[in-house]
Structures are given as structure tokens and as C-alpha cells.
Amino acid sequence: MSAARNLDPYSEAPPGPRPKILFVDDEPMILRSIRRLLEQLGDDWELLFAPSGAEALEIMAEHEIDVIVSDMHMDRMNGAVLLTRVQHRHPGVVRIVLSGHTDPKLVYRAVPVAHQFLSKPFDPVMLRSTIRRACRLRTLLESEAMRRVVGAKNELPSAPKVYTELVQALSNPEVSVRAVGEIIERDVAMSSRLIQLVSSAFFGLPQRVSTVGGACAYVGIDTIKALVLSVEIFQMFKTRRKSLSMDEFNHHSLMTGQLAYRMLEGHESADHAFLAGMLHDVGQLIIAARIPDTYTMIREVMDRDEVSVHDAERGVLGMSHADLGAYLLGLWGLPQAVVEAVAGHHRVGRVPEESFGPLGAVQVASRLIHDIEKNPIESAGLNECAEALGLSDRLPQWRKLAWEIAQQSDDD
Question: Rounded to 5, what percent of the chain is helix, strand, coil?
Fold first, then answer.
């Protein structure tokens, strides 16, 4: 299998056949408007249109569709049902909802199967940008088999202890938004899904939310409760031999995010650095939860050959968790800076930024935290990272910050 080659999944169109984009809506006028507007913008796409879910599935049986964009309210088969069937039959297809104000219960039904949500009346430039990004994600993950693994499900596994604590907290009518946010922030899966959903057009925020606290404050307890308890977006991680330790995973991820934030504190990209640090290893969750036998094999290679998880993954899969995680976050429409940082956090010396930003911060922060955790294999390359960034003189200061964060985490 071939690995990702480009840190920026949105920089250039991938080679190959014209992407096929399927639009589904039972309003002919909407479909005509989409066709006219997108043809005027001039992208080299093959546009297909279906006035119903049943006809959309027939088209997909005959054509290799790259992206499906569906309305939610349709007679006979609504968008949630259609996208559920697409997920099962064509898991590698990017699934986008384009819908107006609708019943929240119907939208919640689409949450486990839709990658992104756009609202009507739609902005043609935003629609075009979203589709372009979806098409160009192929440069991040060229293996069709692994795209199917990532696309087959839309949830990530949460630590049982954190999941149970959140459910208990939400059952308390007096619980505060801040308390709920602090629980969610301790779990990578919950944090990433909440940020993805609240950043979507469905919630109508004037700008993207980059923090769990901000997301919780905006949507409120009732919406969080609906998302957690009535929607299957969170699931508890099922442990097995050689399985991922969720407590250790979340602990490392949170400390990496906190350190990356502190390294850029005061800069406009600090929130993105925190989010990228929190999510930098999210691809490991995908491997452990969706292809557990492969995860076991990777752990055995690590133990036998004394190599890093990144090297073991590349030996077994031909790619690493960084590629898988960045692809998923790209599907979800998370900020480009976050996707780039996740994709490149193992690539020492490959920092395309003109100035120090989330990618460089996560590269250094993850290694510093591994160093504190006494993991010499995973912390290797720390000095090279700092040197490549031209910031070796700041390494002692960052190391001190890392120790402070680790001490605070132990006290908590």
C-alpha cells in the first residue's frame, strides 16, 4: 500500500480520472441550481444528479462515486437512510449533507453516517470548496482499502471510564457546561467528534470552534445530552489482547495538546495547536478499533524489532496512523492547519510553514511528552525537530513546560 505524500491535502488537484460528484435532492429546481452554479465555477468534475434516494443508489451501483451530497428531507427515503446505505455499500465515498432547517432528530440520525453538514440556502463558493477538499483528500490516503476502513464508520472509541463519567454527569440536572466540557476534553474521541459537529453548518456558528469548552458553551447541555445519549457517535472501547490502553492514550494526547498550546500561547494558531496535539494520534484509534488484528500485529512488530509505532505501522500497512488520522479529520472538515499537523507530526524536518505553527509545535510537543514518559523510541528525533525549526535554544524552556504540565496532570 502506498502512503500519503503531501502534507497539505488541499494544495493541488490529485492526478487521475475526473472526480464523480453525486447530488441527491427531490427538488428539481435545487438540482438545476447546483448544476448551473458549479458549471459556472469550472471545476473538472463529472456531476451526476438523482431526484430520490433509490435512484441515487442505482447510480452508485453503476458509477464509482467520489462524493455524495444529499438533502435530508425527501419522500420515500430521507437523507439519513440514504447515507446509511451508502456507508454500508460504498464506505470509501465521502458523505455530505446539504439541507435547510430541519428536525434535529432527523439530523441526529445522520450524525453517525455523514462526514460533513452544509446548510441551505447554500453558498456556491463554500459548497465548491468543501467538495474540492473532499476530492483532494485522496492525496493524503491513496489506498482505496484504507479509505474504506476509515469511511466504514463515523465514530471513534472512547475510554469506558470517561464515557461512564460523562453519562453520569449528564444525568444530573444541575451539572454545569464547564464540568461537562472538562470531562469531554479528557477523551480524544469525544473531543474530536464534538468539535467536528459543532463546527458544521448545522449549528450555524459564525466562525469555527477550536476548543471543547467553546463547543460545549455554544450548544449547551441539552444538545450534548442528545448527541451523547440518543446518537451513536460515542462508543466504549472494547479491550482485547494487545489492545490500546485508552487511559494512557488520552493522557498522552491531552498533555501533548496542552504543551503545543503553551508553546504557541499568545499566537492566533494556539487553539489549533492544542486541537492538533489532542488529535495527533487519532489514527491509532482507527486501527485499534476497526482493524484490531492488524493493531495486534503492529504491537508485536514493535516489541520484536524495538521500533516506533510509526515505523511498525509503515512496515505492516505501508502507511501510518498519522495518514489515517489526517484523512479522517479532513473528511470531517476540521481546519487545514490541524489536518496538516496531524499528517506531519512524525516527519522530522518537513515543516512547510513560513513561521513556527501547529505542525512544528506538535512535532516537538509529542516527542517531549514521550521523553517525560520515558519512551526513548517514540521521543527519538526531538533535537532534530528543534534544530529543523531553528529553535534549539528554546528546547530547555519547552522541556520545563512539559515537566510542569506532567506534574499538574499527575496531581489531578
Answer: 60, 5, 35
Peptide bond into 15 cis (omega under 30): no
Residue whose C-alpha cell is 496535539: 277
The residue ranges of every structural domain in the chain are 20-151, 156-236, 246-411
Query: For the structural domain made of 20-151, what CATH number should be given?
Result: 3.40.50.2300
Amino acid at the residue 396: P
CB 137 within 8 A of CB 4: no
In the DSSP assignment, the letter for residue 307 is: -
Calculate mean pLDDT across residues 180-204.
81
pTM reported for the whole predicted model: 0.88
Say if residue 6's pLDDT is above 90. no
For the domain covering 246-411, report its CATH number. 1.10.3210.10
Return d(Cα 219, Cα 181) in angstroms, integer: 11
How high is the pLDDT of residue 5?
44
The DSSP secondary structure of 215-248, one letter per residue, reads: HHHHHHHHHHHHHHHSSTTEEE----TT---HHH
